[in-house]
Amino acid sequence: MEVLSLLWRHRALVGVLVRRELAARYRASLLGYLWSMLNPLLLLAVYAVVFTTVFQPRMPGAQPYALFLFAGLLPWLFFSGALLDAAVTLVDNGPLLAKVTCPAEIFPAVTVASHLIHHLLALPVLLAALGVGAWLGLHPFPWTVVLIPVALVPWVLTAGGGALAVSALAVHFRDVRDLMGNLLNLLFFASPIIYSLDGIPGRLLHRLLRANPMSFLVEVYRSVAFDGRPAPLWEWGAAFLVGVVTWLVGAWIFGRLRDTLVEAV
Amino acid sequence: MSGGGRPAIVVHDVWLQYRTSPDRVTSFKEYIIRRLRGDLRVSEFWALREVSFQVNPGEVLGILGRNGSGKTTLLKIIARVLRPTRGRVVVRGLAAPLLGLGIGFNNELTGRENVFLAGATLGFPAAEMRRRFDEIVDFAGIGEFIDMPIRTYSSGMRARLGFAVATSIRPDVLLLDEVLAVGDLEFRDRCTERIGTFREQGITTVLVSHSVQSILDICGRAILLDRGRMVIEGTPEEVVGRYHEVLKARRGAGTERGDGPPKH
User: Fold this and answer.
1) Cβ of A15: how many Cβ atoms within 10 Å?
2) Partners of residue B51 on adjacent β-strands
3) Do A59 and A196 meet the contact criterion of CB atoms below 8 Å apart?
4) What integer pLDDT is reported at residue B3 of this predicted model?
5) Mean pLDDT rounded to a whole number for chain B
6) pLDDT, tens digit only, all 265 positions of chain A
7) How far is residue B247's CA from residue B13's CA, in Å, rounded to a whole number?
8) Most buried residue, A11, A63, A198, B102, by CB count within 10 Å?
9) Other Cβ atoms closer than 10 A to B81
């Protein structure tokens, strides 16, 4: 948890960097910050159309499918976006890193923080879509959405640990970003985002997919953001455990490489 | 803030080793393959060896040495950008490093944005920097260029803006790396004057240079580095004298490499 105190001590810098990252993304667009609402909205619209008219997946507990998918996809976009950006953050901030007395952890942390803000900005779209779904009588409104902040904690820990490791490795190895892209693709399909584990035929495949640590995070989040019934406690425990372990491993890798970073960027 | 007679900077038996791979392994794939084959070569290079000195509050210390003697590395360690492989460094209070020409300036951002970014890296929120802003622009003397991207600046302008920001916050320790070398005479005079004011206020300055003149002009004490070792510590005149001897000896010896015994 020393990273938290680190971020607090350097909060002036963190504030500037997060604001810069957010501004850089939206500066060129006329809609400015509204863009971050529009993007998930368009995504939702596409899913709604495609999965009600073109494909009609019959997955138990996954109706309406567009909402089910959206609730699974949102935290994933936060996670994968943060990891992909983490791969370039230290190289991009090289001049700062090499000339300033600030701890290098700040940069991956800022990446995760700015993606978390994107995610939070997209939540109103999810809530509105759930509201519309309930109004149309398709799906009762899940009041468990108030627990989304809790379900996000393991996501933030996992993304944070992953970002620490990826950012430091990417300084030394230029192909880490490509590797990350491939790994994330694999992980995406191995996680119950576009399907639900209940709908998987065959016990072997079911077990195999269960072994993917990300599946706990996806299920826990979606249980409060879509199902309306929080996942069993053990699954929350598993999700938090995944978060803490990833965090510790990421911090360890970062710590081992820390002294080599300034030279290498 | 003078720490009640305690030194502002303590550098105790500092060693720094650079480890580089001569093969430039830049892909993870290659790293794994080489690792499995046991084919990873690492060359080690000691950039600094057993460097020890102290700087008292309000002192202006010069670090003199040829290119590649470890001056900048030493300054980076004092600035805590690099961590020593061995040894201990204590810096009391807030250190404002001016390594290279800027304080971590971002080329794409305007001068104005960079002032706030640099302030933030030193722990000063935007509100505080806004109060100092006019004074900074005034001292840097860059006029309407303040709203242009830093990449359009000349090296002199960068150095001026960097120096203006680093000194505007009244740090306890000011670390300067060759900044004075790029400014014109008028700017150097103003820098010298400000460093002088700082000295009276008890603010410590460490100046890295290979320019003998700035060491003689500004510093109260100096050290000489050669090949990562401290050769001598003393008055600027003594140190400059020794520097000339080292230069002469090197020229006579050609370009031999390897480490001669340290001369004390």
Assistant:
1) 15
2) B14
3) yes
4) 45
5) 85
6) 677 787 888 888 888 888 877 776 665 555 666 776 777 788 888 888 887 787 777 777 777 888 898 899 999 999 999 999 999 988 888 877 877 777 888 999 999 999 998 899 889 889 999 999 899 988 888 899 999 999 999 999 999 999 999 999 998 888 898 999 999 999 999 999 888 887 777 778 888 888 899 999 999 999 999 988 899 999 999 999 999 999 999 999 998 888 888 777 7
7) 25
8) B102
9) 21
**pLDDT (average), residues B194-212:** 90
| Torsion (CA) B101, B104, B107, B110 in degrees, nearest 10 | -100
Q: Flag whether pLDDT at B257 surpasses 60.
A: no
Mark yes or no for CB contact B95/A101 under 8 Å.
yes
**Domain locations in chain B?**
1-20+43-94+172-264, 104-170
Q: What is the pLDDT, as a whole number, of residue B134?
A: 92
State the distance between the two ends of chain B, measured CA to CA, in whole angstroms. 33
Angstrom distance (rounded) from CA A243 to CA A160: 9
Quote the domain boundaries for residue A149. Answer: 2-264
Hey, what are B61's tokens?
């210390």
Cα angle at B186 between B180 and B191, to 5 degrees?
A: 45
Q: Are A161 and A250 in contact (CB under 8 A)?
A: yes
Residue among B83, B95, B99 minimizing CB distance to A99: B99
Handedness of CA A214, A219, A221, A226 (dihedral sign): positive
Contact yes or no for B26 and A263 at CB 8 A: no
Q: For residue B125, which residues of chain A lie inside 8 Å, CB to CB? A: 12, 15
Give B236→chain A minimum CA distance, Å: 27
CB B164 within 8 A of CB B139: yes
Strands (DSSP E) contained in A121-254 are none
CATH topology of domain B1-20+43-94+172-264: Rossmann fold (3.40.50)
Residue whose entry in the numeric block shows the structure tokens 């650079």? B18
CA dist., res. B251 & res. B226, Å (int) = 14
Tokens 């020890």: give the residue: B52
Closest CA in chain A for residue B97: A100
**E strands along chain B, which residues?**
9-20, 43-55, 60-65, 86-91, 95-98, 173-177, 204-209, 221-226, 229-234
Number of domains in chain A: 1
Instruction: Give the residue among B209, B176, B182 at the shortest CA–CA distance from B65.
Output: B209
* Residue B194 scores a pLDDT above 80: yes
Considering CB atoms only, which of A101, A169, A179 is closest to B80? A101
Q: Do B121 and A102 touch (CB under 8 A)?
A: yes
In chain A, the residue whose alpha carbon lies closest to the alpha carbon of B25 is A173
Residue A58: per-residue pLDDT: 73
User: Which of B28, B107, B123 is facing A173, going by the closest CB pair?
Assistant: B28
Question: Is there a contact between B90 and B9 (Cβ–Cβ < 8 Å)?
Answer: yes
